[in-house]
Amino acid sequence: MDENRHAIVPILEETFYALSRKQLSYRVSLTPVGLYLTKRCDDDSEKIDLINIKDIIGCKSMQNSAKSNNCACRPTKNTENINECQVHIPYTEDADCSAYLCVYAYILKNKDMKNEKRDKMTVTLRFRNFNSYDENNKVATTWKLAIKSLLKARYEDGTIVAPADNQYLGNRLLVIVNPKSGVGKSREIFQRKIVPILNTADVDYDLHITCMQNDARNLMQKSDIYKWGRGVIVLGGDGLMFEVINGLMERPDWQRAFEYLTFSVIPGGSGNGMAKSISFETNEPYNQDPILISVLNVVSGNRCPMDLVRVETLTEVVFSFLSIGWGFIADIDIESERLRMLGSPRFTIWSIAKLIALRSYPARLSYCKINNLEIETRMNNFTISTFDNFHEPVTTENEPLSIEFGMDPLEEFDKRDRIESFSSIISKRTAFMSVNEASSFTSIPELLEESEVWVRGPISRLPPLSDPVPSDWEVIEDEFVMIHASYLSHISEDVILAPKSKLNDGVIWLLIIKNGISRTTLLQVNTSFET
Ligand SMILES: Nc1ncnc2c1ncn2[C@@H]1O[C@H](COP(=O)(O)OP(=O)(O)OP(=O)(O)O)[C@@H](O)[C@H]1O
């Protein structure tokens, strides 16, 4: 039981009856913390469940328009089971004037266990105090609007810096999909797993399917990005996010763009280091369902700042968010491209090949060492950010996770056909145009001329590459098997190089392996990267 429950003044409160178990009543209270379900037990005691507002992704109101033989008490897909019900009230065309409100949440199950995961939970509230649907619907709508404004407050909490010229369009999202990332299933993943969640969460989106290398980069460089107040998500790998970040850095208004936009990644690539690192830091059960966890991060509106690293070579400047590698791991990453169709196993296979033909490279490495991580860095992050999301609900023992008051309208009479054809995806206001290899996005006005491409972004505070490094830096001149600098914990889903790394700590973690390491030791190091 939640001791704080009675201290919170409910926004709305109503008593519902669980038709599946007669005489069982629930007091349902909507509070800023979430939905409290207070069950009155036979012995007059109470059991309280909390569905945290941070676990709720959306709600929909509906009407029963079914002409079915199912019982009003509990619909079944299999009509043969109808006789199991003792109070058989068949629906007729005008029998049910109730209004229904379905509240959708993803609840953390099996907390702190190996099989920790998020499960969908639907609470269906049936409003039928009045004899007319319109009257019942008014009450249901009041609940719906109240829940939605609580959800909206999560991402409109003042941390988005809206441009002064009124271009802010709040809830709109840009989704960039790389159909070639990973094993080439991104389009299918978008259709099957992401669209339903975006729809449930009422997130409007524009969709852009990349048609070639640098397509996302050009899009970010030239588009009117200020219409995507809800942010930019990439469905693909870290390479696609790299294009997004660097395309934005090429804009004259890069600073404002970075203040305005939020970014997110849904793993569709082979490595997926950024997606994994975010979930690792927020303790989300990524491995059970990486795509679900990442989409929930998007719709929940959680945000936190993330470090970018400016990388300068003799010929170019790029901005990096994951890592920069040289030698062993970089070779595996680049050379295993030819095995792309295998997905992430390509890295394992190629690492064996690289171990057999082990190489080393001469280099001079200079770096500025941090002596005290806590004192000299920003070890802040999610403890003070808006990302304290997704708590386990205070579920009472053995309670079913799906609580139903009346029937579940979504299952029975919201039988929209699953959209099989990719060309028929329609978001709230945007129609998706085509699926050929050409980009499907047509409505973005171009801001810059084709020829205007140069790197902007923040300037370096270090001496030029040709100058000596500051005197307090360490310098090593040697033969190296690899040097890898990471700024996120994971460089891929199963390679963790910097467990203590935080998204926003301003720290670069250096992993150095010098020549002379035996193949056996390197093999051990390689296998330990997973843990
Ligand atoms: N339609 C396309 N056809 C060919 N290449 C593309 C296309 N769209 C994007 N690309 C390029 O593919 C590269 C790799 O894409 P992405 O990062 O999405 O997948 P990945 O390499 O499998 O994943 P990871 O980077 O996590 O290993 C990107 O750098 C991008 O330049």
TrEMBL record:
Cross-referenced InterPro entries: ATP-NAD_kinase_N, Diacylglycerol_kinase_cat_dom, Lipid_Phosphate_FormReg, NAD/diacylglycerol_kinase_sf
Entry's Gene Ontology BP terms: sphingosine biosynthetic process
GO molecular function, one term: lipid kinase activity
Any one Pfam family match given in the protein's UniProt record, by short name: DAGK_cat
Alphabetized Gene3D superfamilies for the sequence: 2.60.200.40, Probable inorganic polyphosphate/atp-NAD kinase, domain 1
Residues annotated as domain DAGKc: 168-315
PANTHER family membership: LD11247P-RELATED (PTHR12358:SF112), SPHINGOSINE KINASE (PTHR12358)
Record's protein name: DAGKc domain-containing protein
